[in-house]
Design brief:
single chain, extended, mainly alpha
Length: 80
């Protein structure tokens, strides 16, 4: 596997990197082991999952989507 300089830099900064290995044929995420260890219980162990742990992630994703939505202003008038 060969990574671009940008992918290597992202991994060094602790960011996930999206890759599509030809052997798999679909998008996967490459993480540093320390990042994976911090979050693996959230993915694999439902008994310890606390929904409030995801609130900040969901808020960040929604804010990013809103910021990139050119039609957002047009449907804000429908807010209750």
């Amino acid at each position: 596997m060969h990574l671009t300089n940008e992918q290597v830099q992202a991994l060094r900064e602790g960011e996930p990197v999206a890759i599509v290995p030809p052997e798999v044929g679909e998008q996967c995420v490459l993480l540093r082991m320390d990042a994976y260890e911090k979050m693996k219980h959230l993915v694999y162990d439902d008994s310890q999952a606390d929904p409030s742990q995801f609130y900040s992630v969901v808020s960040a994703v929604m804010a990013e989507d809103d910021a990139n939505d050119p039609a957002l202003e047009s449907y804000q008038k429908y807010k209750p």
